[in-house]
Amino acid sequence: MRRPPRITSSMRLVIFIGVISTGILPTLVQAESKPNVVFILADDLGWSDTTLFGTTSFYKTPNIERLAARGVTFTRAYSASPLCSPTRASVLTGLSPARHGITSPNCHLPKVTLTATTTKTAAANQKCTIPNSVSRLKTDYYTLAEMFKDNGYATGHFGKWHLGPEPYSPLEHGFDVDVPHHPGPGPAGSYVAPWKFKDFDHDPDIPDEHIEDRMAKEAVAFMEQNKDKPFFLNYWMFSVHAPFDAKRGLIEKYRKQVDANNPQRSPTYAAMIESMDDAIGALLDTLERLGVADNTIIVFASDNGGNMYNEVDGTSATSNAPLRGGKATMYEGGTRGPAIVIQPGEVEAGARSDEVIQSCDFYPTLLELLAIQPQPGQSFDGISIVPALHGKKLDREAIFTYFPHSPGIPEWLPPSVSVHQGDWKLIRIFHNGERGSHRYKLFNLKNDLGEQKDLASEFPERVDQLDALIEKFLIETDAVCPLPNPNFDVTKYRPELEGKAALKGGADAPKKTPTKPAKRVAGWQPAGNASVVVKDGKLNVTSDGGDPHLSYPLPKPVAEPSLILTFTMTSNSQGNGQVFWHEQGVSPAYFRDRSTSFEVQHDGKAHEYAVELTTRNPIEGVRIDPSTASGDIQISNISLSTSDGRELYRWEL
């Protein structure tokens, strides 16, 4: 998409002078000062992770309740994607992931991909291929921040970005300020100091400083510095994304309140929710103290559904009940979240709306609230939701969620796209039916919020009607779609495994009888049903189980706060990959809290991967878990570097 020509403030001045020169003097009205805008985007915050909807008795979110008391709470707010980066790009552009092409959270990886492309093949057990996602938010787009900047606003981004490092950072997308200027998928190392951000240290007078406390402090300073002119504060929280840690005192506070019968029972996650809510309170307190609260529009939303699939405190991180599924799934729990919009004096305080809204709607909505016209030729996949802010119905046909990926988590589906229209929801599963046809799941959310009864066979006409909307959407957005897999082998197809996977970092499977470890190969120790041989300069890994992995003790400890493990990998297996690191003096050697997950292309082709390791202590070893299923995998070109590209170690095979 080409960036439309901007109409800047200086251009408007020229136009006004031109009017005066003609002798036509318009009546001038003293305009009120432009309203400030604060956009708060939580990370992985689920629909049931706040007290807004009566779905939690464990978490406490009084400051989110303060937001709700001042504006409109949406009960049916959807993220543009069940994963973070695609939604973030949609917020900034008003476009669907199907159109901007960022469909996977791969924007921290070193490979720069600016155009989505199809893949021709996939692993033999998969019925369709998975497209290659864009990995950077192109600077061609006229972003929300650039719109504000061109209209005289100070612009500041605080917190998570995950849309690409320089030259695709917030500073290249319209923001004057970017703190902590970090391109990664989560906080560097931990939430509680010491952190591992580059050029951004914790306050030495606060040894256990929480990153959300610090982000709120930085955001407060930005508002104070710009209190006499309009500002756009883009506060994209790190919370409540992994890694899962929190203030020790808060964890102990919630540990005493755990109810074993409540599916929300992780004291660490509850503590993370409280710190997130405290940061929101700090922003609200500042707006009131500066006397600008009544002239500030606030948008609060989440980038996707709650993360149910990490094991924390011996249980699932959270629960999205009564919704089905969670982050990275196409069910309601993957995309439905809390959302609030505030405009003092214009929007009814404490109101609720059941209208369906989505991330793409916020850009055109803010334009209408601020009486700013889009750029010539600029269009959106979202719509203005201003009518809903005034208690009216929205004039929209449907919303769409495009997710052509298949991460191996509980409730996973093959690559899919969905449509919501009224109470109906249809999921099209690409090329997963007979002879390459699509497969469908149809739900009536009014009668079945938990998506337990698939009505596709009972209402074929409804399926056809909604699928026609999907097809029209895919054509209009020029979506790069999955294709039938020419390598599909029905003898390797395991449909009974759909939606079946263990929690990340832990499982309830019975312990296996220990066996004698296999011999090291080129220094690598295979385990988890994996065998390894070196051939043609590659580690050839064969696994007949669900947990293949191989570890390597480094010849000497590496003391760097931020490291990148890069390698080339070919796979026909399934599931996400994970890299663990062994820190000096810490046991067990390889543990989920010292690991990073990454999405793997199991299409039988070579792909480059770069996985970030954020450490507290010198590391003594690394472990690669390339998949979560049986299969054949080749790994080569393995190296360990600092975050600035300085190579520390390269494996010779």
Describe the protein in words.
- This protein is an alpha+beta fold and 653 residues long.
- It is built from twelve helices and 25 strands.
- It has helices at residues 9-21, 62-70, 84-93, 97-100, 144-150, 211-225, 248-255, 267-289, 332-335, 362-369, 386-389, 460-476, and strands at 36-42, 72-78, 154-159, 177-179, 231-236, 296-302, 311-312, 315-316, 336-342, 351-358, 399-403, 416-421, 424-429, 439-444, 525-527, 530-535, 538-543, 549-558, 562-571, 577-583, 595-598, 607-614, 619-625, 631-642, 647-650.
- An eight-stranded mixed β-sheet has the order 4-3-5-1-6-9-2-10, sandwiched between helices. Strands 16, 17, 19, 22, 24 and 25 form a six-stranded antiparallel β-sheet that branches.
- Strand 16 and strand 17 form a beta hairpin.
- Helix 2 packs across helix 8 (267-289) and helix 7 crosses helix 8.
- The radius of gyration is 25 Å and the shape is globular.
Tell me roughly what share of residues is in helical segments.
10-25%
| Structure classification | alpha+beta
Please, what is the average pLDDT?
Answer: 90
Radius of gyration: 25 Å
Portion in strands? 15-25%
Strand order of the largest sheet: 4-3-5-1-6-9-2-10
N-to-C CA distance:
44 Å
As residue ranges, the low-confidence spans are 7-31, 506-515
For the largest beta-sheet, the strand count, sense and barrel status come to: 8 strands, mixed
Number of strands: 25
Shape: globular
Please render the helix and strand layout as text.
Elements: H1 9-21, E1 36-42, H2 62-70, E2 72-78, H3 84-93, H4 97-100, H5 144-150, E3 154-159, E4 177-179, H6 211-225, E5 231-236, H7 248-255, H8 267-289, E6 296-302, E7 311-312, E8 315-316, H9 332-335, E9 336-342, E10 351-358, H10 362-369, H11 386-389, E11 399-403, E12 416-421, E13 424-429, E14 439-444, H12 460-476, E15 525-527, E16 530-535, E17 538-543, E18 549-558, E19 562-571, E20 577-583, E21 595-598, E22 607-614, E23 619-625, E24 631-642, E25 647-650
Helix pairs in contact: 2-8, 6-8, 7-8
